Amino acid sequence: MFGIAWGVGSLLLLVGLGEGFRSGNRKQMDSLGENILFLWGGRYPAIAGNMQSGKAYHLTYDDYLGIKAAPHVKDASPVLLRQDIRAVSETGSYNGQVIGVEPQFNGIRYLPMRQGRWLDAGDEAERRNIAVVGTELVKVLFPGRAVLGNILLLNGVRFEIVGIVDSVGRGDNNATNSRIYVPFSTMAMYFPLKGEGNAKALSMINFQPRVREEHELARDESRRVLGHNHGFDWHDPDAFDDWDTVKSAETVGKIFAAMNVFLGSVGLVTLALGAIGVINIMLVSVTERTREIGLRKAVGATSGSVMLQFFLEGLLITAVSGAIGIGGAAGLMHLLSQFPAPDGFDPPKIVPFSAALAMGSLTVAGIVAGLYPARKAAMMAPVEALRRE
After folding, report:
1. Per-residue pLDDT tens for 337-361?
2. Which of 141, 221, 245, 308 has the fewest CB atoms in 10 Å of its CB?
3. What's the angle, vertex CA 208, arms to CA 231 and CA 216, rounded to 5?
4. 94 and 120 in contact (C-beta within 8 Å)?
5. pLDDT tens across 4-48, in order?
6. What single string gives the DSSP state of each residue in 136-172?
7. CA angle, 198 as apex, 196 and 201 as ends, to 5°?
């Protein structure tokens, strides 16, 4: 019984843990946004095929415009990011990320609003000194105070807060929740990137394909734009620093699918070993109950009735053992769900597919565990059975 219970329980628990990992990872990816591609400046070889002769290039606003106009790109946004700008309020100060973006940025990235509004086209066109802040920044700079309409100094420049982005991701240390968003045009005017040749450079470009299936087409189009604008062969993958979250999600999905198959196989092997144990128990039972079988057949019991008796006994043992395993796995998963899960993990849960697989395997195990010993018992001749003791 223990073998069957352990096999069913381990099958459900192992697949449930794998599914929790998959679900947690998917949520982390979704907290970035849907079907996003990130693009940064890179290096291209000054001499073809020789990366040691690499020449650095920076993204420009023209690169952004070219990518946004690409046939398979749904939308794009330039990004200016600085981490050395001091934010000061009446009650405190903070050194966090200040990001200049265009209004469409929150349609690309996942940035739900808690209060107020997001940046709009008027803010961008008129280079308004307004800001949208994250929830963690609010706790630090405006503890227990009204935020909307308040003034925030960024390196001494006054900005009015018009919105608060709701908490994104898990945990209070998520950097997204500490960011300050300002119009891209305003950021470029007051806080361009530092360094030689960076005055008109972008930190990165975020963009989306028209549909998920076109992510590679959109990526290739972005590379073609950069190759054309900066004068290098866009076919060289080493010349680009980009991240395709769609491709990453697909790769992780394949890994999790393989993991589920492996973990499920481990559980099925354990379940099979448990079924063998039940068969052995029933065979011993047949041997010990030889006289009982002989008496029943001597008084008229048919081979079919004897076979049915032992088959049902084996099936009952298997069913009870399986129920214990399912109950134990469900109880343990419920217990684990009461504790905070680490980043990238969700609490394990019973997956319908694994539950169906467990029940199907349990049915097969019960039939096998009951049928073979039952047939052996039914085949006994009454005289031979009564003679053994």
Report:
1. 777 766 667 777 777 776 676 667 6
2. 308
3. 65
4. no
5. 677 777 777 777 777 777 777 777 766 677 889 999 998 887 666
6. HHHHHHSTTS--TT-EEEETTEEEEEEEEEPP-SSST
7. 165
